[in-house]
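Changelog note: in this version the structure field was regenerated for every chain. One regenerated record is shown below for reference.
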Amino acid sequence: MEGSANLQLERFPAAQCDKVTGRSSYAFDVALPGMLHGKLLRSPHAHARIRSIDTAAARSIRGVAAVLTGADTSDLADPYYGVGLRDQPVLCTDRVRYVGDTVAAVVACNERTAFEAAQAIAVEYEVLPALMTPADALAPDAPALFDRPAGGAMPAVGSGSTSTGEPAKNVLCEYTFAYGEADADLAASAQVFTDSFTFTRISHFHLEPHINVAHWTGDRLEMWSCNQDPFVIRADIARIFGIPLHNVRLNTPVVGGGFGGKSYCKMEPLVALMARAADAPVRLGLTFDESILTTTKHAARLKLTTGVDASGRLTARRAEIVLDGGAYSDASCTTAIKTGFRIGGPYRWRAIDSRARVARTTCVPGGSFRGFGGTQASWASERQIDMIARRIGADPYEFRMRNLLGVGEAFAPGDSGMDSDLRAGFSDVAGLLGPEPCPRGRGRGYAIGLKDAGGTGNHAQAILKVTQGGEAMLSAAVVDIGQGAAIALCRIAAETLGISPDNVVYARIDTDHTPPDNGTHVSCGTVVTGLAVQQAAHEVRKEIVEFVASRVGCPVEAVTLDGWTARVGNHVHPLEPMIRNYYGGIGWEFIGRGAFKEPYDASAPLRSRNLCWMPCWSAAEVEVDRETGRVILHRLVVGADAGRAVDKRACHGQLEGAAIQALSQAMFEELRYDGIAPENASPQLYRVMQTPDLPLDFRSVVMEHRLGRGPDQLKGIGEAGMLGVAAAVANAIEDATGACLTSLPFTPEKVLAALHAQSSGGSK
């Protein structure tokens, strides 16, 4: 049940060994005959009108095959992309909207020549006012960043929710979620508290930058892309270029980390356009710095007003949330929905009244990031829960226990019931800090993050082929981004068939042959696709049983599969010779298909009852140097409920990786701006967690409450560790010092400022 960061060496699956030994093939490794290379010219301005672009010097350089500007997108069917609302141009046409925006693209014989040509392009700009913060963007006198409405539409929502696109100038979207009578319940509360919290802009910092290769054969496009959504991207490219879906083929190899930064369209439409213009295969590999300027986690400000009755029970919460969406939509619409929906956390409320808006700014676009919306919501919610407990003189542990949702209790009217024992999980994790009092000078803090997992309305298909020798090939669209879902899916297939997992391989993802899903995110891979895989495996079993019954001459009910043999009464029939004797030659393959779709339900807040719930219990013990503001993390415990762990080692890996990523964001990470330009958008300057920063004692707990809806009660776990860590550390800092932190990251400067405010009787 319990794991630690100091794992002993074990035998790892071949797919994991391939990564360690360098045998894995990434998009970076794709090389096609005659392949050319691309480079981009990016904007030096946060906001400017493009007056003219002179490409003559670039075109004259030997080895340059094509130079593209916004004018070259005029023949596209729809030159914009984004999730829900579509406002990001394939190439800038009339304006640039952040430092790093793509102004022109060059294709040449090699990267050096392409880079030289890109620098030779002369652009005349008319600089416009920059809107670097949501406050700037929402000011009455702020200029509008867009002159025309965005294409597309807001994602549909259900009962108690509204979603509106572009409700006001420089507001991309607005989401509201409400039930009960918040005004009345807050008015009747014994005490009401209002607090504000900020969340910083954070880079995904995946070690593999964005890499794409595109090649046209006539009017048919083939691409190799490091992405998490091959079928989403296929659909976007088909729409943008106005071509049929079957004329777009996406190959997705192993991905070197994504965390949401490789969800949905990023560079793919532009690379396809470059390849079309050059009439040759084209590779565009971004630098690490450029990937940082492609998308970020949303910065946010969250204002929470929360009521408590005389018995210490939560009554109602009102939330005002503003997310910094940056220059373009990307996944901001869905992030706003998820933040506003999840703001109540794992607690029982009489009423919720939440509003989340996305402000357009002249910064790097905000997109999906591991646990998107859940991390921002959990940070503010769990921080305030702790602050309230201390203000009313309640123990933070007991205060949470008193208010947690029970098993089977609906998260909100119309939604599914809680499928984890929140109290048991909290008790298990908190108990690992021990019953003894906290050592002098230290403090302990707790937090319980919660998000919906498996998505709303998500779907997947799977195909399973099994040879006469019992070797199976599983085909599904879950992308290997390091989470081990492919191995888990193969194990689900093997369990259902009753064969060894070593006999099941995962096919490479190719949209011409792989059955579709709607993307590898929201921890849906093992649950949603797992149900499709299980169904496909059952179909294969049925085919095998029917074949045996036809050859032996018995009812299908008389056949029992035992490994790769069939039993009929007291007789054992090895399957391979039976199949070969009948089919001869190359033998035969049994092929099963499976599919799963969570149905839509208008009575649910997100238009579909959530497939499963993902809690994360966190407990931290810290010490604070009052002279320097340095925080020493002595102990960190994180726990999550896998429902049923198909591969417990992989579950620990996912939980620990997410927790350390969350801890890095809590303590160090922030993409900072100096005026209009990012000042640390490079791997040398962007501070992430390093080995000396790790907790002195770090433990993970993978629980199996066996209440999930996945195959044999499993649930998703990939995002869990992101949800509670930041709040747990801040709560521990307050427990140790009395200093109240309400903004990330917890730098020594912020800690010292909070200590000063606490000692002078002020508030932060």
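Spot check on this record: The longest strand covers residues 314-326. The radius of gyration is 27 Å.
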